[in-house]
Specification:
The protein has about 270 residues and is mainly α. Helix content is about 80%, strand content about 0%.
Length: about 270
């Protein structure tokens, strides 16, 4: 019951974290867009309605239009979630290398040294150690159980592995769906900004007489800035998602390997 309550509390805190990040990122992006990039010092005549100064990137990005702060919101959110996932998954791995820890646990269980295995789990900590510790405790309790057959004990041990894993893994995958969503959303918003910028550019070219050069340059800036921002945000989200997914898969494999070894050890050491 305690583990279940802790898991529910952790999930609520993470949901609260996720629901706060995006609004705060939107506020930060809007402030940067209006008061930093839109500052008059970046534009000719000191007015943000004019063309940006030559070589001034802040002014150029500002001319990307209202899509820019939205994409900036995605970018800030991606960076925030990436840092949060990195910290969480690093803690889940524990203090030492997971591969060495799993190898040590296998060796201790082959010697049927249960107490040493529990001590190793306490020293390692993290999600992998939590799962293995729960299974080792079950292993120890089953040794004292006389009313069950060997097959029933192995089934109970396997069930404990699955339950312990199901409690730990969801916390590792939290917020990854947001990174996956931002991968596509960043590109789509970039394309939307590109289309809006091209519409403004063609509108400037369609004017009677000489084209409006300021409107034309503004439209081109809007198109290119949003394309670059959108692609960059999507690329960062994709890299982050792939990296963390591979880390979680590695941890899952370690848990499965350790769980299989524990079941095999019990089957070999008990008749």
């Amino acid at each position: 019951m305690k583990a279940t309550k802790t898991t529910k509390t952790t999930k609520k805190s993470r949901v609260g974290f996720a629901s706060l990040v995006i609004p705060l990122a939107l506020v930060a992006a809007t402030c940067i867009f209006l008061f930093v990039m839109g500052d008059g010092s970046h534009f000719m005549g000191g007015n943000s309605k004019n063309a940006p100064l030559p070589g001034d990137y802040f002014g150029t990005v500002y001319k990307g239009g209202f899509i820019v702060p939205i994409i900036m919101t995605l970018l800030i959110s991606v960076v925030t979630f990436a840092v949060e996932r990195y910290i969480t998954i690093s803690r889940a791995s524990g203090k030492g290398k997971v591969e060495i820890f799993v190898h040590n646990i296998k060796g201790l269980l082959e010697k049927n040294d249960i107490e040493a295995a529990l001590e190793a789990c306490d020293k390692q900590r993290g999600s992998v150690a939590n799962v293995i510790r729960a299974v080792v405790v079950k292993y120890r309790n089953l040794e004292k159980e006389d009313a069950m057959t060997k097959e029933q004990k192995l089934t109970s041990l396997q069930k404990e592995i699955e339950e312990a894993t199901s409690l730990e893994l969801p916390s590792l995958e939290e917020n990854l769906v947001i990174l996956a969503t931002f991968t596509s959303l960043g590109t789509l918003l970039g394309l939307l900004g590109t289309v809006l910028g091209m519409i403004r550019s063609f509108a400037a070219l369609a004017n009677a007489g000489s084209p409006d050069s300021v409107a034309l340059s503004t439209g081109i800036s809007e198109a290119l800035v949003n394309t670059a921002f959108g692609i960059g945000t999507s690329a960062l989200a994709m890299i982050s998602y792939s990296y963390f997914t591979s880390k979680i898969d590695k941890l899952t494999y370690s848990i499965d390997e350790a769980g299989f070894s524990i079941v095999q050890s019990y089957a070999a050491n008990h008749k």
